[in-house]
Write a structure and sequence with these properties.
mainly alpha; three-stranded antiparallel β-sheet; about 10% strand; Integrase_Tn916-type_DNA-bd_N; Integrase_recombinase_N; DNA-binding
Amino acid sequence: MAKTRKDLRGRVLRKGEVQRSSDKRYMYTYTDPLGRRKFIYANDLAELREKEEKLLKDQLDGLDLYVAGKASLNDTFDRYISTKHNLRESTKSSYTYTYDHYVRGTFGQKRIAEIKYSDVLQFYYYLLNQKNISLGTLDTVHCLLHPTFQLAVRDEIIRKNPTDGVMKEISRESGKNRGARHALTVDQQRKFMEYIANHPIYFHWWPMFTVLLGTGCRIGEALGLRWQDLDFDNRVISINHSIVYYPMNGSNKSVLRVALPKTDAGIRTIPMLDIVKDAFEMLYEEQQETGFNETEIDGMSGFIFCNRFGSVPNPQTVNHTIKRIANNYNAEEVVQAKKENRDPVILPNFSCHHLRHTFCTRLCENETNLKVIQSIMGHKNIETTLDIYAEATEKKKQESFENLAAKLDIF
């Protein structure tokens, strides 16, 4: 039988109520609509219960507004996200950040029952043309708004979902494309890595980019690698978690957290290429002299990659470094190509995720078993693997015909 909790005066406390031993103050714990633990405090029990009653009334008032169709889009989104109990914490944080950044302060303040198809259309064009976001980012916003409105439809707060068909019209009329990621060519990949290896400043980045291009890891998965995740005897890398930067409430700062991979399929093992093994061994030898990463994140330590401050690098720092290296390389390559009277091999604007895409493309060019590719990449859906495979094989098809034309002498 559960033991009844009492305060220091012997009064029975309700569920969620405690009296703190440190300062004798009363505290009530509850969960808000976003699933976050919240607390209210009081100097005496009567005051605490007044606050509890007010909290309950506020929550019921919010429900009344929702049922009456007077709730804002913000209220409905908060209600929607609170129902997503199976979302990973990193995914929920990303959804909330995106909504807060693009919707909450403007369009989100409208009453949900008053929002029409044309309102959504105008808002999307505002984001595209005034805020200059990409069509891909707009897709992300839409993927939050559409189920939010759909929840209101199912609750019979509104009759139709005003976001239905909006993205189809936007895609047809806006003249923008989604900016599909393209892999580096073999020449670009080789030039990028050779430039880093031979550069007096950037050479210390060679191991990290070798690992990214030799494993296809997401940047958070790579930064989260620990020495214990490597099996040198069996030449296997275990991917079982990732590093995520969560935005801190009420500030522009972020905090490092450990999260599970993007999907369950992300928990996997990756064979260790010789060049990747060399990169890890190089890092280990360096850190034996300079010191290992002593950062502890959510109880985990022993992280492989280390910045100059002795902590785990920020993914944005890695992306900024790629841009800086590519710009420097391109400037030098243009001059060198002119001296040698040849066309320069120019590096495009790319990010860490393009390196993952590049690895997957090289894998597709050399492996025909789609299930093997899907497993190594940690793709949840085979369609993602098929899209990259189709792009890779399209290039191979052209090369195949060029080889055929060179060998056939029958026309």
